[in-house]
Amino acid sequence: MSLSTTSIQYVKGVGPAKKKLFANLGIETVEDLLYFFPRRYEDRRHLTPVAQVKIGEWQTISATVKKINNRRSYYTKKHVTEALLDDGSGRIYGVWFNQPYLAKYLREGQKVVCYGKVDRYKSRLQMITPEYEVIDSEDDSYSMNCIVPIYSLTRGMGQRYIRKVVAACLAKFKDDLRDELPGALLKKHRLQSIKDSIGEIHFPDSFEAQETALKRVSFEEFYFFQISVLLRRFSITQREGIVHRISDAAALQFINGFPFTLTGAQKKVVRDMRQDMQKPHPMLRLVQGDVGSGKTAVAFFGCFAAYQGGHQSAIMAPTEILARQHYENLLKMIEQGPLKGMKVELLISSLKKAEKDQALENIRHGYSDIVVGTHALISEEVQFKSLGFVVIDEQHKFGVRQRALLSQKGTNPDVLIMTATPIPRTLCITLYGDLDISIIDELPPGRKPVKTQHYIHERVEEAYQFVAQKVKQGAQAYIVYPIIEESETLDLKAAQDMYRHLSKTNFKDFRVALVHGQMKQAEVEETMRRFKQGTI
User: Fold this and answer.
1) Which residues on neighbouring strands pair with residue 344, listed in sequence order?
2) Do 369 and 329 share a structural domain?
3) Is 403 among the domain residues?
4) Are residues 61 and 120 in the same domain?
5) Partners of residue 347 on adjacent β-strands
6) Phi, psi angle pair for 11, to nearest 5°
7) Strand pairing of 414-419 and 124-128?
8) 478 and 374 in a common domain
9) Hey, is 120 helix, strand or coil?
10) Using CA atoms, how far apart are residues 268 and 523, in angstroms rounded to an integer?
11) d(CA 158, CA 166)
12) Which of 40, 121, 206, 433 is deepest in the core (most CB within 10 A)?
């Protein structure tokens, strides 16, 4: 039986309606469910009494709902649901925002397990937005008196339900799991069977057993990942690419064409790229360097080399703001730098229809030598006359498929990938083994070195104080958030909410602005203009 094609409906407890809910989690087959691992665990063998909880720590408690009510916050006008919880040793409040339906779901007298960060508000203990689970019976073998798996959920699905479904799936299909690793490899590294590992990951006997099982599965994932990387690299060497003929005089013309002197590290990357681009198979190179290290300048060499042979280049950036920045830098290089005579095109989704149509026409007929854009570059309507060089800015923002889609618009073009994310060399070789790697570890003269400091959530106020101090000294700052609006399913800080909060609290004495992808382009440009001028 193939678990990768067996529908999840063959698992006890999954009907047509639940099948749709599982699909929301990306689970459609038995194999999907078996490999849908818990995101964390709760040790309910020894729960913490309320009387012994510690302020500021994440704790799991089991208590009875004594009282529950809804109200509106006087200051934020948000719905606030409060449940008074009692376990016999003490009392604590569970507090949830904008979830008024909880007052109907949680009822007085119910036994619940809550997991959250303990806080003290005035004289009372509380947990803000704790995860909760209603317990029907202390005899629930999957939810009490054991190490309990906690899964990611979708609306309409509870933890107890998904545990029972996973248990039923394991009981029926676990023995159909087959080890894909060679027996000699399992023996050499003393690895347990895959079926035992999957069982221990879902319902571990101990945390040590869970860790061993997870390492076993991770080993297999990395093993096959490395094989796929090696196959991709071999495949690249078998393709017939574009041989770019770059003379010494042309390379020197490019290097000397800048109004500044390239660093030794930049010159080395240019040499590496030149060698790659003169080979009969496509270049696939990753350039890693801090912000301000000059990655863009070396990327422009690839554009220059492609232009020398009559080919076009494409630069794909993750945001319109970054795409425009590249576009403006290219215009400067064309006017007064090493790219004189070249024509650059900007292709982003916010262009007016007439502008977009003209850009597509220029690209198709080869009137544009360099095309800068966002995801718009990989749309079907974009056709190049002769794409010879591709730049992917910020590799982690694009998948392998998106990279391939852009490359397929040419005949095996050379590809350069740029990232400012510091990646340890061993990890870089593991993840990007199909790429040649260059590191720009030297900053241009006058550039201050980048200092990276990590603050845990509990120290976020220190970070804000540091920013405020620097701004008072005349510096500017920007803060990046992962989402724009508050989400019910993602526990992430949202840009709009934090903009409103910070502009009224920590940064109330400063000029604060907001920029995000859902704003009108004119607003974004005006805000960025003011930021560049220093008025924000």
Assistant:
1) 370
2) yes
3) yes
4) yes
5) 373
6) -90, 135
7) unpaired
8) no
9) strand
10) 40
11) 13
12) 433
CATH code for the domain in which residue 118 is found: 2.40.50.140
Instruction: Identify the weakest region by mean pLDDT among 291-295, 361-365, 408-412.
Output: 291-295
**Three-class DSSP category at 38:** coil
> What is the identity of the amino acid at 39?
R
My answer on whether 281 and 404 are in the same domain is: yes
Distance CA(403)–CA(29), nearest Å, equals 28
Cα gap 427→433, rounded to integer Å: 9
Question: Domain of 297?
Answer: 248-440
Helix (H) or strand (E) holding 372: strand 370-373
Output the six-digit token pair for 448.
Answer: 């201050």
Which residue, chain included where needed, has tokens 């120290």?
459
Tokens of 168: 């039923």
Residues 271 and 362 in one domain: yes
Q: Length of the chain in residues, anyone?
A: 536
How far apart, in whole angstroms, are the C-alpha atoms of residue 72 and residue 194?
Answer: 51
Name which of 341, 403, 327 is nearest 372 in CA terms.
327
pLDDT of res. 488 = 46
- Same-domain check for residues 259 and 369: yes
Smallest CA-to-CA distance from 313 within 405, 385, 240, 238 is with 385
Alpha-carbon span 151 to 35, nearest angstrom: 12
Mean pLDDT computed over 230-245: 87
In this structure, which amino acid lies at residue 52?
Q
**What CATH number is given to the structural domain containing 325?**
3.40.50.300
Assigned token pair, 18: 């639940």
Q: State the pLDDT at residue 351.
A: 86
Which spans in 239-387 are helix H? 248-256, 264-277, 295-308, 320-336, 353-365
The last residue of one of the domains, among 117, 137, 157, is 137
Give ∠ CA 139-142-144 in degrees, rounded to 5. Answer: 50
Residue 506 inside a domain? The answer is: yes
Q: Shortest CA distance to 353 belongs to which of 374, 332, 381?
A: 381
Instruction: Confirm whether 186 is domain-assigned.
Output: no
Tell me if 27 is assigned to some domain: yes
Q: Give 207-254 as a DSSP string.
A: HHHHHHHHHHHHHHHHHHHHHHHHHHHHHHHHS--------HHHHHHH
Structure tokens at 494: 């949202």
Q: Are residues 267 and 133 in the same domain?
A: no
Residue 339 tokens read as 């790219």
What total number of domains does the chain contain? 4
Pairing of strands 79-86, 40-43: unpaired
Residue 313 CB burial class (10 angstroms; 0-12, 13-18, ≥19)? buried
Please tell me the distance from the alpha carbon of residue 41 to that of residue 150, in angstroms, as a whole number.
5
Q: How far apart are CA 311 and CA 412, in angstroms?
A: 12
* pLDDT higher than threshold 50 for residue 166: yes
Same domain, 22 and 61: no
Provide φ and ψ at 273, rounded to 5°.
Answer: -65, -40
The reported pTM is 0.65
Start-to-end CA span in the chain (Å): 63
Q: Which two tokens stand for residue 447?
A: 């550039």
